[in-house]
Amino acid sequence: MTARAADRARYDRATAHLDAPLAIVDLDAFDANADDLVRRAAGKPVRVASKSVRCRALLERVLSRDGFQGIMSFTLAESLWLARSGFEDVLLAYPSADRSGFAELAADPKLAAAVTVMVDDVAHLDLIDAARDGGREEVRVCLELDTSLKLLGGRVRVGARRSPLHSPAQLAELARAVARRPGFRLVGIMAYEGHVAGVGDAVAGRPLRSRAVRLMQAAARRELAERRAAVVRAVRAVAPDLEFVNGGGTGSVQHTAAEDAVTEIAAGSGLYVPRLFDNYTSFTGRPAALFAQPVVRRPGVGAVTVLGGGYPASGAAGPDRLPVPYLPEGLKYDPQEGPGEVQTPLLGSPADDLLIGDKVWFRHAKAGELCERFDTLHLIEGDAVTATVPTYRGEGLTFL
Predict the structure, then answer these.
(1) Which of 27, 56, 51, 309 is nearest to 198 (CA)?
(2) What distance in Å separates the CA atoms of residue 99 and residue 2, rounded to the nearest whole number?
(3) How far apart are CA 135 and CA 107, in angstroms?
(4) Strand runs (DSSP E) across the chain, as ranges?
(5) Does the N-terminal or the C-terminal CB of the chain have fewer CB atoms within 10 Å?
(6) Count of Cβ atoms closer than 10 Å to residue 341 Cβ
(7) What does the pLDDT average to over 22-37?
(8) What is the pTM of this model?
């Protein structure tokens, strides 16, 4: 029996009393992935990206482990909810225009002490000031550095379009604007190198593309390490009490951790290890989050139909944004239909061994987005469900 077949047998036994559709997290794999992130961070704390987890119980679980410290959140409403729930170090990774949220933040000492917000423009400071509604608490802010690699005099850009702040001078200028502004305190710098951390460099069947990605990423790491160090020096000259410099992502943990200027690493997807992380040479994780759909039809030889399963992930549309049938091994989509909202045909010889009501296990393309489809996660240890916990959705919360 292969390791994957053994996992399927465990999952089927553990959930035999449960009807699909359902979602699970294999805690043995989750904990092993957490250990691997800490190992690759080489002594620097890992800040957990909540967007990639979206389950309060699992955030608590990973933050109780040595090597993890703080949360990187994705909306201001989520940040405030997490702070009210007892999380004391929440970094909002994206700028916000949530005026009511800023009014709440500026009026509450506990929230203001726990939450750090992201800015990359003086206009963000203006919006926060206009939203205070009498609140006088000091707002903690972090500046975001644009990590993109610019080539040919800036005519070619590699990397996500995030912050407009690219040079040390630009970040230092905004740091001075924060320092002059009553009611704000600059505490951190963040830089997410998504073109390194979030792009696979070993795509099956694409050797030339994979080599090109590796060459690009090597060049990007060298350029960013030098520029990030210069940025930190420039900002510390304005704000010598800077508390943290955050960088990285699941795919670049060990490379980013090697930079002296970086004080902490961000990661989250590496806990669940969705399918987009199968194409990396920098690490190998264990799939921990899966979902199961029930077989509801047997339309012919070598074919079954499962209920639903059409859960595409965000990003540029393409086959890599779709879930993949994972267990039993050997199933694939019908190219004429793909995964459907209500039914999904699957083809392959393993279909002939599946009966009505059997479970087919899938892996989502991205990590936390799976939790927007399910109210609960069944936590598996060995071959038993040891707990069932709510996702954000299960707690009645949809932040985006």
Answers:
(1) 51
(2) 54
(3) 4
(4) 22-26, 46-49, 68-73, 90-92, 115-119, 139-144, 149-151, 156-158, 184-191, 244-247, 264-267, 289-300, 303-307, 324-327, 332-333, 343-347, 359-363, 376-381, 384-390
(5) N
(6) 9
(7) 98
(8) 0.93
